[in-house]
Amino acid sequence: MAPAQNLVSSKHVAVIGAGASGLIAARELHREGHTVVVFEREKQVGGLWIYSPKSESDPLGLDPTRPIVHSSVYESLRTNLPRECMGFRDFPFVPCVDDFSRDSRRYPSHREVLAYLQDFAREFKIEEMVRFETEVVRVEPVDGKWRVRSKNSDDLSEDEIFDAVVVCSGHYTEPYVAHIPGIKSWPGKQIHSHNYRVPGPFKNEVVVVIGNFASGADISRDVAKVAKEVHVASRGSEASTYEKLSVPTNNLWIHSEIETACDDGSIVFKNGKAVHADTVVYCTGYKYKFPFLETNGYMSIDDNRVEPLYKHVFPPALAPGLSFVGLPGMGIQFVMFEIQSKWVAAVLSGRVTLPAPEKMMEDLIASYAMLEALGIPKRYTHKLGKIQSNYLDWVAEECGCQPVEPWRTQQVDRGYERLVSNPENYRDEWDDDDLIKEAYEDFASKKLISFLPSYFPKSGR
Ligand code: FAD
After folding, report:
1. Helices 406-421 and 433-445, interaxial angle, to 10°?
2. Measured from the CA of 78, which atom of ligand 1 is nearest?
3. Residue 393 scores a pLDDT above 90
4. CA 455 to CA 436: how far, in whole Å?
5. Closest atom, ligand 1, to C-alpha of 193
6. Strand segments (E) across 111-241
7. Is the Cβ–Cβ distance between 93 and 25 less than 8 Å?
8. pTM over 0.85
9. Of all protein residues, whose CA lies closest to atom 46 belonging to ligand 1?
């Protein structure tokens, strides 16, 4: 941990967003003694987990003037991580056994995650800090402070000055649409997973789903319940890949990548197979976008790298007044938000110091060079993958909090292995009872729970 040089001081901090990252940022900032205003354009907390049956008018999300629907959650969505490793550290995401309206499954539905975040906000009185239906439209540095312009539901704008701004606005709203050669003259329908809600509209269709990880695996199987055929284009697979899955609906094929789309309506895969498709569904990820941020050209987004950002959190020359919580995707999310938030709160109070801006830039330049040397494309800068636990341990040490419990990381790794090997049933058939036991013993030893869920492994099992 870098030693504190300044006296601990309280700052006036704006947090943008009341999703999981904004909620924990608000709590950590408040705990550290800062005053906090959370700006949230929706009517409630929860961010991505507020399911909306409505989707955007432009199914690919390319029209910059389209009204934005924030959430990318589909009706059938269940978490892609086990709940034990997903929750915040001192507020475990455990089943509410006394409330039958709640979903007690290990991989619960999106509604249960929203209910958990609402419980968290209530427990730590965070809603009192939130200005709902208030959108931040501009953030800019002025004389060492930050001017935040917001607009409320009556369209009234207000400018306020803050010592610091923490950006927690999420990054699963702006679709990344993979390019397919020939797609411009292909006559079928196209939709990005951001706008996918239910399978009904795909009844009796031949559907091509691009992407075979969490959302692609789910959506292809959801659509297959009503579609005539579903063909999944899987980038990770060898060029010759062509496999028909007999479960669950006997109408789903896995192919290699798409070679081209043709104006006669066919889609040709790299395995040489062609299908005449009605719709292409892109499960190809998202782009970072901060339309409210004005840094006089200091920050930019290049090929989905938000730069320059020291350890994915602080832009060196604008730190610590500007910070970002939640940028790295995949792996443990909520606990990452928690540890990053503790770091931001401690740096703002002066309890922990950052290196000088030029040192942070040196570190950044070295990390970009390392990615390049490893052949990792720029657009994967914030995808930490296997190094997430090292990253989190580093940030945790920096702000003096406990490293991530090994059982969490192991649950994530084992869960992702199951997702790949058993995408149909990975949420209900698991082989890590040992890790569930460890998690609940950990919660119990910290007096965070007083019961065990029904799926908890009984002794002797
Ligand atoms: P969000 O939840 O998106 O919240 C951002 C908030 O900021 C929103 O409420 C938004 O309204 C507000 N906002 C944005 N701009 C403004 C503005 N200008 N002014 C005011 N307010 C603004 N993670 C897991 O841990 N487990 C899972 O199972 C899992 N499943 C996922 C499934 C899908 C389909 C997707 C897309 C992601 C999934 N994730 C999962 C990752 C998930 O996004 C994170 O876990 C987390 O919920 C993101 O929280 P956030 O606060 O960063 O962003």
Report:
1. 150
2. 28
3. yes
4. 9
5. 34
6. 130-131, 134-142, 145-152, 157-162, 164-167, 174-175, 189-192, 206-210, 229-233
7. no
8. yes
9. 20
Cα separation, 443 vs 262, whole angstroms:
56
SS3 state at 442: helix
Total count of domains within the chain: 2
Confidence of residue 53 (pLDDT cuts 50, 70, 90): very high
How confident is the model over 370-396, as a mean pLDDT? 92
> What is the atom index within ligand 1 of the atom nearest the CA of 117?
47
Query: 395 and 272 in one domain?
Result: no
Same domain, 298 and 165: yes
Q: 64 and 118: one domain?
A: yes
The answer to whether residues 221 and 278 belong to one domain is yes
Residue 14, beta-bridge partner list: 37, 165
What pLDDT does residue 460 have?
Answer: 35
Looking at the fold, whether 221 and 98 belong to one and the same domain comes out as: no
Q: How far is the CA of 43 from the centre of ligand 1 (A)?
A: 15
How far does the centroid of ligand 1 lie from the alpha carbon of residue 66, in Å? 20
Which of 40, 48, 114, 166, when mutated, tests ligand 1's pocket best, judged by the most ligand atoms within 8 Å of its CB?
48
Matching residue, tokens 């009192």: 128
Its domain, for residue 330, covers 12-174+286-407
Question: What's the CATH code of the domain at 164?
Answer: 3.50.50.60
Is there a domain that residue 18 lies in? yes
Quick one: 112 and 29 in the same domain?
yes
Neighbours of 54 (CB within 10 A): 11
Q: Are residues 220 and 348 in the same domain?
A: no
Strands of the sheet containing 206-210, edge to edge, are 189-192, 279-282, 206-210, 229-233, 252-255, 242-245
Question: Residue 247 has what pLDDT?
Answer: 78
- Condensed to tens digits (0 to 9), the pLDDT of residues 69-96 reads 999 999 999 999 999 999 999 999 999 8
User: Distance, CA 20 to ligand 1 centroid (Å)?
Assistant: 7
Q: Which of 209, 229, 233, 217 is CA-nearest to residue 423?
A: 217
Q: Which of 114, 166, 169 to mutate to test the pocket of ligand 1 (most atoms within 8 A of CB)?
A: 169
